[in-house]
Amino acid sequence: MDDMTEIKVSIPTDENGMAGRQCPSPECGQYFKLKPGTGLPIEDTGCPYCGFRAEAGEFLTPDQIEYAKSVAMDQVVRPMLEDFKRDIEKLNRPSRDSLISIKFSVDLPTFYLHHYREADLETPVTCSNCALEFAVFGVFASCPDCAHLNAYDVFQGCLEVCRRRLGLLDVADTSADADLVKAILTDTLGSAVSAFDALGKTLRQAHPGVFPDKPKNLFQNLSALDQALLATGAGIEGRVGSSEQADLIRLFQIRHVYEHNLGVVDDDMVAKVPSFAHLKGRLCPLTRADVERVVELLAKLASSLQTDLTVSGGP
Questions:
Q1: CA 145, CA 62: separation in Å to the nearest integer?
Q2: What is the pLDDT of residues 115-135, one digit of tens each?
Q3: pTM reported for the whole predicted model
Q4: For residue 32, which of 160, 133, 135, 102 has the smallest C-alpha distance?
Q5: What is the CA radius of gyration of the chain?
Q6: 170-185 burial code (b ≥16 CB/10 A, e <16)
Q7: N or C end of the chain, less CB within 10 A?
Q8: How confident is the model at residue 5 (pLDDT cuts 50, 70, 90)?
Q9: CA of 207: how far to CAs of 77, 140, 211, 229, in Å?
Q10: How far is residue 280's CA from residue 282's CA, in Å, rounded to a whole number?
Q11: What are phi and psi of 261, to 5 degrees?
C-alpha cells in the first residue's frame, strides 16, 4: 500500500471571521461567505442562491484550493526536496589521487504561499432558525445550513429601519422643518411598501402555486393579492382584520399618488377610496400615524403569511 501524507489546512477568514464559498453547480457558481463555528454541526452545505447541496469541501473557491496546494507544497514537498539536497551534497567528499573532481549541487525552488482576499458582499445575514452567519450578493437568500428562507427576516429588518427613520421626527431641528418632515414621511411610506413588494417577489418564486405570475406588481395590488390569498383559506381581511384591510388599501393608495402624482388626489384614487372624493385635485394629507400604521399592518400580514406558508411546506 502506497504511503500517504495527510495534512490539515486551515482556510483563512476575512476580518469578520468569514470564509468564502462558491457554489459547485455549473448552472450557478455564485459566491457567498459563511462564518465557521456558527450554524449547524453538519458536513454538507447548501447554496443560498440556487439551493444546490453537497459536501462542504465541494464549495471551496479556486483561490482557497490554490492556497491549500501551496501550503501542501511548503509543508510536504519542500522538506522532501531539502532531504534530497542534503543526501546529494553528502556525495561531495574529496577524493585523493584523482585527476577528476565532481561536485554535486542542488538548487531548490522557492515555495510561495498563494495569498488572496475574500470578496466583499452586500448583505450580512444571521439565520433566525439556526444562527448561521453568512453573507450574500443581493438581499434575499436561503440559509446554507438549514435552508431557512431569510426573506421574512430581511423584511422585518426593513420595517425596523422604517421605525428608526420615523424616530428622526422626534428631533427638534427635524420636526421644525415642514419640508423635511414631509420627505421623511413619504420616503418611509414608500420604503415600507417597496420592502413588502420585494418580499412578495421572493415568495412568488418559493410558492408559485400560491401566487400567480400576473399581475406583475401583485404585492402592491392589494385587490389581486387578496384574491390569491383567498385560495389559501384566508384573504387579507382574514389575516389582519376588516378595518385594518381598509387602512392598508387607503395607505397603499396614498403611497401611489405620492409616488406617481406628487401626492395629488386623482380620479383613480377616488375610485378606489371614495372617502377621498372631497380632496380631488388637492394634496393628500399624510401623517406620522399613517406611516406607523402601514408598518404595523405589513408586519402583521407578513407574520401571518410566514406562519401559513411554513406550515404548508414552504420555507
A1: 22
A2: 778 888 878 888 888 999 999
A3: 0.66
A4: 135
A5: 31
A6: eeeeeeeeeeebeebb
A7: N
A8: low
A9: 53, 15, 6, 12
A10: 5
A11: -140, 25
Q: What is the rounded CA–CA span in Å between residue 286 and residue 292?
A: 11
**Residue indicated by cell numbers 427576516:** 153
CA dist., res. 280 & res. 262, Å (int) = 13
CA angle centred on 120, ends 198 and 137, rounded to 5°? 25
Residue-wise pLDDT tens digits, 256-273: 999 999 999 999 999 989
Contact 186, 262 (CB under 8 A): no
* Sign, CA torsion 140/145/148/154: negative
CB contact at 8 A, 264 and 284: yes
- What separation in angstroms does the CA of 66 have from each of 74, 112, 114, 170, 237? 12, 11, 6, 54, 57
Q: Residue 142 has what DSSP assignment? A: B
Q: Show the beta-strand stretches assigned E in the chain.
A: 19-22, 31-34, 44-46, 53-55, 123-126, 133-136
Residues contacting residue 301 through CB under 8 Å, at least 6 positions apart: 196, 236, 239, 240, 248
Handedness of CA 158, 163, 167, 169 (dihedral sign): positive
Q: 245: how many CB neighbours lie within 10 A of its CB? A: 19
For cell 542542488, the residue is 106
Positive or negative torsion for Cα 218, 220, 224, 226: positive
Angle CA(223)–CA(229)–CA(230) in degrees, nearest 5? 90
